[in-house]
Design goal:
Shape: elongated
Oligomer: single chain
Largest sheet: 6 strands, antiparallel
Number of strands: 21
Strand order of the largest sheet: 2-1-11-10-7-8
CATH architecture of the largest domain: Sandwich
C-alpha cells in the first residue's frame, strides 16, 4: 500500500510526495528530500508498516520530530485526511488504497455494519463453538475516541476478543504512553469484559481495574487518550 501527501504550508507548499514502506524523509537523504526546510533533519522520518498492515511515519530521533495537533509524537498513522508537521512543513494525507472506504457516509456505514453483525450473530447460534474461535459481541460494541491524537474516531466491534495498544494486530493506539497491548475487550455470555495487565496506566472510569463487566458509557483513560465504550442498539 502507498499514500500520497501534499504540503499545505511551509517551504514546500503545494508539492506532492509518494510515500511507501521503507521510504525515508530527510533534508540531505532519502526518497523524499525536503531541502528547502531548514528545520528538517538529514534523516528525519521513516515509513514503516505495522503488524496490522497500516503505514506509519516514524521519527528517526530528529531534532524537531513529528507533530500532530501541536503535540510531538514518535509516529503517526498515514490515514486519509491526517495532518502532520515535519520541520516547518504541514502535510496532509490525500489518498490511499482505503480512500473509497474512508469516504463512506457515516450513518450508512454504521447501518451496513450493524446489519452484517446481526446476521453473523444469528448464524453463529446454529454453529458449534470451536476452541480459539472468535465469539460475537451481543450486542455489538462501539468504541468512541473522545480525546487524544485519534480523537473523533469510532469503531464497531462485532466479534472478539479484541486488543487495543501501541503494537497489536487489532486496534493500534498512537498514544505515547500506551503499552503494546493496553487492554482487551472479551465477549462473554453476559456481555463484554474489559481486561488489562496495566491498571496503573490504563484507568477505567478513573480507577485501576484489571477486569470489569463493560456497561454503556464506561471510559478508558491512557495518558492523553480517552476512549468511551458503548453498544450498538
Amino acid at each position: 500500500m502507498a499514500v500520497y501527501v501534499q504540503a499545505l504550508e511551509g517551504p514546500h507548499k503545494g508539492e506532492k510526495f509518494l510515500l511507501k514502506e521503507g521510504y525515508e524523509i530527510g533534508r540531505a537523504r532519502g526518497e523524499v528530500m525536503l531541502r528547502r526546510d531548514g528545520k528538517v533533519s538529514s534523516r528525519h522520518a521513516l515509513v514503516k508498516r505495522t503488524r496490522s498492515g497500516n503505514l506509519v511515519l516514524v521519527d528517526q530521533e530528529s531534532q524537531n520530530g513529528i507533530k500532530v495537533n501541536g503535540q510531538k509524537v514518535r509516529r503517526v498513522t498515514l490515514g486519509i485526511g491526517r495532518v502532520f508537521v515535519i520541520g516547518q512543513t504541514v502535510f496532509k494525507v490525500l489518498q490511499s488504497e482505503d480512500e473509497q472506504a474512508a469516504q463512506f457516509d457515516q450513518p450508512l456505514w454504521k447501518k451496513i455494519i450493524k446489519e452484517e453483525v446481526l446476521r453473523l450473530i444469528e448464524a453463529s447460534k446454529h454453529q458449534p463453538p470451536e476452541q480459539g474461535h472468535v465469539v460475537p459481541f451481543e450486542p455489538a460494541v462501539e468504541i468512541r475516541i473522545l480525546e487524544g491524537i485519534q480523537a473523533d474516531r469510532n469503531f464497531i466491534l462485532g466479534f472478539g476478543p479484541r486488543e487495543f495498544g501501541s503494537d497489536t494486530l487489532d486496534f493500534e493506539l498512537e498514544e505515547l504512553t500506551a503499552p503494546p497491548v493496553a487492554f482487551a475487550l472479551v465477549p462473554t455470555e453476559a456481555g463484554a469484559d474489559f481486561q488489562t495487565d496495566y491498571p496503573d496506566i490504563v484507568r477505567l472510569n478513573d480507577h485501576p481495574i484489571r477486569i470489569h463487566r463493560v456497561k454503556e458509557g464506561d471510559r478508558v483513560r491512557i495518558g492523553k487518550t480517552l476512549i468511551e465504550i458503548g453498544f450498538v442498539k
